[in-house]
Amino acid sequence: MFFLVDWDDYDAALFDLDGVLTPTAEVHMRAWRDLFTDYLTLKGETARPYAEADYFDHIDGKPRYDGVRDFLASRDLTLPEGEPSDPASAETVCGLGNRKNDFFAAALAADGVEPYAGSVTLLDHLEQRGTKIAVVSSSRNAPAVLEAAGLADRFEVVVDGQVASDAGLPGKPAPDTYLEGARRLGVDPEHAVVLEDAVSGVAAGHAGGFGLVVGVDRGVGADKLADAGADVVVTDLAELAGER
Predict the structure, then answer these.
(1) For a tag site, which of 103, 143, 166, 210 has the least CB within 10 Å?
(2) Do residues 11 and 82 share a domain?
(3) What is the pLDDT of residues 187-217, one digit of tens each?
(4) Does 153 participate in catalysis according to the annotation?
């Protein structure tokens, strides 16, 4: 089955990374689960243990420290903000975020990552057409993941969490990182497509006025993606490689 896109209408495609190009969203999910299961147990907060829904409701698609902060708020917990240089052992928002990143980095090093076959199919299709492409990810691990997946040489423009931090750009669901990706590609957002698996990322694409926002349902649910502003929802990016 294909969702027919007239790619002649669009100059560029801007891809989220984790869960869209690579199955690393699952690795992130496990890292967040391990982090907060340990943390809540340590703090004696066992009445509401960490659940998979917490990832989608409070963390998915957001910059790392925002995810920590928003999850803690869901449990009426607060921590000092700290600094990005905090060690992973620090009892701060940044410390917990860095601890989560250690979990993720260890899993990536141990297991590697293969891109979704359907996503590679779409990348090949867009390359043949000459469509400009970029990665826009909240993760500071994006360059490492792209390299591990064998995709690094496909993207001249990568706007990741480090780029956003250096430029002072707010993370998703604000549209700023996607707009920065479009700016770096030299395209008008109205003539570009955003491809996202997270509610926060879909909301960012919608808020940025992009010509088409594609929700990729890897588990969050088609209804939630549509409600956040997805114009269409697919389960595999190969569905977008057809032609009108």
Answers:
(1) 166
(2) no
(3) 999 999 999 999 999 999 999 999 999 999 9
(4) no
